[in-house]
Specification:
It comes from Rhodovulum marinum. By secondary structure, the protein is α/β, with parallel strands linked by helices. The protein contains 12 helices and 13 strands. The mean pLDDT is about 95. The structure holds adenosine-5'-diphosphate and magnesium ion (MG).
């Protein structure tokens, strides 16, 4: 009756929009000790919006935003879309280079422009002045601070907020009720990640993770037992493949779906608890 109960469980899951892509995923999921979530697009809506702009003394806000938008026009990052929405009228940038996990560099009217995280400005030895404190205050609310610099001088801080999905807290609560630990993995700064984790009650946080570093963060979490990773695709494919169970969420990219064992059709993280519940029930029937 093993294959039959697996078929029944898989069918029941499909009715809830949870697709088990690989045969043994239903069994493997039942033994998971920790579920690690990507932040952006998985627990948050994945559509950040500019909510705040602070400038260095004497700098015009609109001008700083246009310089940032010029460079971001060449990026596919969700941050880029938000900044472009805030400054649709912008000059053209040249020599734009993406610095994954850090931000962007480019040239506008001959000036060297940097747009990105505090660690990018650190690396370029740019003094953020009072903008540093403003950025830390912003991060403590769960927003993402992005800095703009021109020719080695900090011009502005752009604050972007990406609201958590209304289903995120119930998803985390449901997993805890089932005795599973939760973790958050993100490229955002520690302060931003910590604020989101606290809001959702997530147990552990790996922040400041570079795009290539998610797999190493998973190895660390795996010390506690079998691990599931939930991601929406952008850069998540290696982590989805490396976890004991990879769960792709929502409108996930094709790459993510290919790498995943389980796909949650609706972008609803509560599907993880549904999947776990069905897998445990199925295994009880098998034994
Ligand atoms: P995540 O996958 O968690 O969203 P990323 O590695 O994409 O993290 O980005 C990490 C950080 O790098 C962002 O929070 C932001 O500070 C900075 N960053 C990355 N891309 C850009 C960009 N196009 N513009 C500005 N900042 C960026
Ligand atoms: Mg994501």
């Amino acid at each position: 009756a093993t294959p039959t109960s697996v078929m029944v469980g898989t069918g029941r899951a499909a009715e809830l929009g949870v697709l088990f892509r690989k045969g043994d995923a239903l069994q493997a999921l039942s033994g998971v000790a920790t579920v690690a979530f990507d932040k952006t697009g998985t627990l948050t809506e994945g559509r950040p919006a500019v909510t705040e702009i602070a400038t260095a003394p004497g700098i015009d806000r609109a001008q700083a935003l246009r310089l940032a938008a010029a460079v971001e026009a060449r990026s596919e990052h969700p941050i880029a879309r938000a900044i472009l929405e805030a400054a649709p009228d912008h000059p053209t940038a040249e020599d734009v280079q993406a610095l994954p996990g850090f931000g962007l560099r480019g040239r506008v009217d001959g000036a060297a422009i940097l747009v990105g995280a505090a660690r990018l400005m650190d690396e370029e030895r740019i003094d953020l002045g009072d903008l540093a404190q403003a950025g830390e205050r912003l991060a403590a609310t769960g927003a993402t601070p992005v800095y703009v610099a021109r020719d080695g001088r900090a011009l502005a801080l752009i604050g972007l907020a990406d609201p958590v999905k209304p289903t995120a807290k119930p998803a985390i609560d449901a997993l805890h009720a089932m005795g599973v630990r939760t973790a958050l993995i993100t490229g955002d700064t520690h302060a931003t990640a910590q604020a989101v984790a606290a809001e959702l009650g997530i147990d552990r946080v790996h922040a400041g993770v570079l795009p290539g570093g998610k797999v190493a963060a998973l190895e660390d979490l795996r010390a506690d037992g079998p691990l599931a990773f939930v991601g929406d695709g952008l850069n998540d494919a290696p982590a989805l493949a490396a976890a004991d169970i990879g769960i792709a969420i929502g409108t996930g990219t094709d790459v993510a779906i290919e790498a995943a064992d389980v796909v949650l059709m609706a972008g609803d993280p509560r599907g993880v608890a549904d999947a776990l519940h069905i897998s445990r029930r199925t295994l009880r029937n098998i034994r």
